Amino acid sequence: MKKYTFPICTFIYLCFFLSAHAQQTMPLTSSSDDAKKLVGSGMMHLVNVEYEEAYDDFDDAVKLDPNFALAHFFKGRLSFGESRTKCFAMAQQAAANTTDAEKLLVSVADTSLNQKGRHEIFAKLHDMYPEDPVLEDFYVMSEPDSTTRVKLLEEQVAKFPNSPEVYNQMGYYYMMARKDNTKAKECFEKYLAMYPDGYNPYDSMGEYYLNTGDKENAKKYYLKSLERCPSSFSSQTKYQELTKDDKK
């Protein structure tokens, strides 16, 4: 199990994130404070699309507290096949001894739900804890209608200007939907400035440069991402594709 060592910017971000949880956001029911810290770290990575690090955090949290419902739930969201099914089953079983909010979040694991059904659950959670930045992210990104989702995203940026991940989402919106590369770059640069110790900001900058045809800068930023997380699947795939001709 990994030790809790974070670069200073990540540590500050995590402290802000966890202090918010202590005051006004959804509770985390666990017998282990270290497991709670890991789930907090995992959710930070999750909303920043750093799935590899998020999975490791949730997996370690489960090892510390096998009855931690949300650790099983989030691990399940990042798993596949039988592992996913097992994680969700354990989350639902463990949720019996948690708060109503945690039970509601775990109910998202119901495979019969469509996107609208999942969004309705996140909307209820959002109403319960309107100051929770992670629940806000789930609420916004689960919105089925793309036009409404953009409006909610703009409101999210205004509401949580100190949350780095919202600038990543806005960057992709400008780059992919609006075809406004100037605005997209501004958002990605702000994301990187706010979260320099993460690896997804570099992956997003790589995506921006790849999308604008600047393969050399794309390679540079994908490599920076891999320096921070060698297991990043997205950066690995793109970097290998961009450098395959260099090896001939």
From TrEMBL:
InterPro entries: TPR-like_helical_dom_sf, TPR_rpt, Ycf3/AcsC/BcsC/TPR_MFPF. It comes from the Bacteria. TPR repeats lie at residues 35-68, 199-232. Residues 1-22 form the signal peptide. Keywords: Repeat, Signal, TPR repeat. This is Tetratricopeptide repeat protein. It comes from Danxiaibacter flavus.
